[in-house]
Amino acid sequence: MDKGLLIVYTGASGVGKGTVMKRLLESNDNLRLSVSATTRAPRPGETDGVEYHFVTEDRFLEMIDKSELLEHAVYCGNHYGTPEKSVRDMLSSGLDVMLEIEVKGYLQIKKLFPDCVTIFVLPPSLEELERRLKGRGTETDDVVKERLNRAIEEMEYAKYFDYQVINDDVERTKDEILDIISKIKKERTMEE
Ligand code: 5GP
User: Fold this and answer.
1) Which residues lie with the beta carbon below 6 Å from any ligand 1 atom?
2) For the segment 149-181, what is each residue's pLDDT rounded down to a tens digit?
3) Cβ pair 83, 36 in contact under 8 A
């Protein structure tokens, strides 16, 4: 039985998930982010092993073959996946682990860990999402368009998540998520 809480954290590209995540990790000592593997190229400022394990397609396929991933999916032409061992190690040592993954990954994790807590982060509006995606300036117009379309498709799934959180303000959103985590941990302790 895992001691830590597994939290699936999903939301459209450009919704500000990463910024909120950074504040969550700074504010809660028991929380860890699982570092995914991806075949996407690093963005300026991203470091291998920090934001992602940046791997070749061959290495990614090998990870699938060797069952090293808990889940994996293709997102806008790149592979993304969650390494199993580090997540299981963290959970069994009592740490709470966040998986920042897209919807297909969520569906796989929900089957494997029915007790996981699922949080979907929404933008205040689609206009705001488009503005943020363009403002990032790290993707071409085509990629921005593809990511926006994907975001709209993904938002259809928000209703299946345990919690929907609107990222209108980083600090407020961070506090809302910390409250959700502490409420669930309290409930689970009482059930034991
Ligand atoms: P980005 O390229 O913007 O960093 O991520 C693109 C999408 O892939 C985001 O929705 C992000 O949450 C998702 N993602 C990142 N890591 C994983 C992973 O390990 N598995 C899955 N299924 N999705 C991931």
Assistant:
1) 13, 36, 40, 71, 73, 75, 80-82, 100-102, 104-105
2) 988 888 999 999 999 999 999 999 999 999 999
3) yes
* Percent of the chain with pLDDT strictly greater than 90: 76
Reported pTM: 0.92
The domain limits of the chain are: 6-191
Q: Which class is 6-191 in CATH? A: alpha beta
Distance 189 CA to ligand 1 centre (A): 31
Ligand 1, atom 11: closest residue by C-alpha: 101
Q: Which atom of ligand 1 is nearest to the CA of 103?
A: 22
Confidence check: pLDDT of 137 > 80: no
List Cα–Cα distances, 127 to 15, 53, 168, in angstroms: 11, 32, 13
CA separation (Å) from 101 to 72, 73, 118, 127, 167?
9, 9, 11, 23, 17
